[in-house]
Design a protein that fits this description.
Layout: E1 3-12, H1 16-27, E2 32-35, E3 47-50, E4 53-56, E5 61-63, H2 67-76, E6 80-82, E7 88-93, E8 96-100, E9 109-112, H3 117-126, E10 132-133, E11 140-143, E12 149-153, E13 156-165, H4 169-175, H5 184-192, E14 200-207, H6 211-214, E15 217-223, E16 230-233, E17 242-249, H7 257-269, E18 278-283, E19 318-320, H8 333-362, E20 367-368, E21 375-376
Parallel strand pairs: 1-2, 1-13, 2-10, 7-15, 13-19
Antiparallel strand pairs: 3-4, 5-9, 6-9, 7-8, 11-12, 12-13, 14-17, 14-18, 15-16, 16-17, 20-21
Helix pairs in contact: 1-3, 1-8, 4-5
Length: 379
């Protein structure tokens, strides 16, 4: 049975951008719901428990100058610590493994003691009950004849004045029916825009201790022979939990991938690295609520922050909010938070304009639509 309900704003996606947008809209007094396809919040903020802390299988760091993340961390009271930097770098190529002095990969950054997903969980916990609705994939967004937008899930039809799409544009175009209402230029752009981490597998190997530090290594490595192409220390404060992590091309993941990874770790860091206590393999290309099919060929990251993402679509009622649409810090949590700010500002501005238009209509006039210069007959 399909349930119908109405709201000021519907936010699609409960990743960090969607949750931040939802929190800001609720604080502004807007009746807002956030629909999330998964049974958890956080999107690409995904952490797994590893006492006394957690290991991040998605977003990991934030850097100096990323004030939005820093402000959010401070407001939510999330404990953080500095990324381990001390030690030498390893380089692996066809000739073997070389050791270069100093950490040539990592820059000063901060990590989240309870894992990055703690930010998403804390944001969601602050929201009123039933604002975030899990297991609610959006299947369609259509303009309504009587005004506003209809947002459909398998079990509900929601009516909203504004919609914030806080998922990667390519995913939105693949999973959501827009009834051919988006401009052809926007459709082409969204389908061509890569999904950040969409073609990547992140591998995290946990050990009883950060033994590489005792050998003067930073845990940083680059490899031209793979399967892990870039590695870093992912240990928690004071080296606990102890872990290394690396990135691999998602296409490299297969039946022999785990064996190839442990063999490479042993080649780089010695016999102690050959048998991790746990080995987590997070293939982001296989996450159906992050990445649409056949994304490996999309590699034009210059499309991130494209000017079409900065303008609301569907007569000013649909707003983009994901790190791929950020004009600054694209691919970072900071970029996602920046797009949330932009979407909230645009939706509140449009809502105020529509409200003035409705008042003008009640006075017997015509109203200018949110798109440049457009006019519409008062209903």
């Amino acid at each position: 049975m399909v349930q119908h309900d109405g709201h000021d704003v519907v936010v699609v996606g409960a990743g960090i951008a969607g949750l931040a947008a939802t929190a800001a809209l609720v604080a502004a007094g807007r009746d807002t719901v956030c629909l999330e396809a998964r049974e958890r919040v956080g999107g690409r903020l995904l952490s797994t428990a590893a006492p006394p802390g957690a290991l991040d299988l998605g977003a990991t760091w934030y850097w100096d100058g990323e004030r939005r993340v820093a402000d959010l961390v401070a407001r939510l009271g999330i404990a953080t610590f500095e990324q381990h930097l001390a030690g030498d770098t390893l380089v692996q190529d066809a000739t073997g493994v070389r050791r270069l002095p100093g950490n040539l990969l990592d820059a000063p950054a901060r990590r989240f003691t309870p894992g990055a997903n703690a930010l998403a969980r804390a944001l969601a916990a602050e929201l009123p009950a039933d604002v975030v609705r899990l297991d609610s994939p959006v299947t369609a967004i259509h303009p309504r004849v009587t005004g506003g937008l209809e947002v459909r899930t398998p079990s509900s039809a929601l009516h909203a004045e504004q919609v914030v799409v806080a998922v990667p544009p390519a995913l939105a175009l693949a999973r959501i029916d827009f009834d051919s209402e988006l401009s052809p230029e926007l459709v082409r752009l969204a389908r061509a825009t890569p999904v950040w981490m969409g073609a990547v597998a992140k591998v995290v190997a946990r050990y009883p201790a950060a033994f590489w530090r005792g050998e003067g290594l930073a845990g940083a490595a680059v490899s031209r022979t793979g399967p892990l192409q870039e590695l870093h220390d992912m240990s928690g404060p004071d080296g606990r939990p102890a872990a290394l992590f690396g990135f691999a091309a998602a296409q490299a993941v297969g039946p022999d991938f785990e064996q190839a990874v442990t063999a490479q770790l042993a080649q780089l860091f010695g016999r102690a690295a050959a048998e991790p206590e746990t080995l987590h393999i997070q293939d982001w290309s296989d996450e159906r609520w992050t990445v649409p099919p056949a994304m490996h060929h999309l590699a034009d990251h210059s499309l991130f922050g494209h000017h079409l993402y900065q303008r609301p679509a569907l007569d000013g009622r649909l707003h983009w909010a994901s790190t791929e649409t950020a004009t600054e810090y694209a691919g970072h949590m900071e970029g996602a938070l920046a797009t949330a700010e932009r979407a909230v500002t645009a939706s509140l501005t449009t809502d105020e304009a529509n409200s003035r238009g409705r008042q003008h209509c009640r006075a017997g006039g015509r109203t200018r639509g949110p798109d440049a210069g457009a006019t519409s007959t008062c209903r």
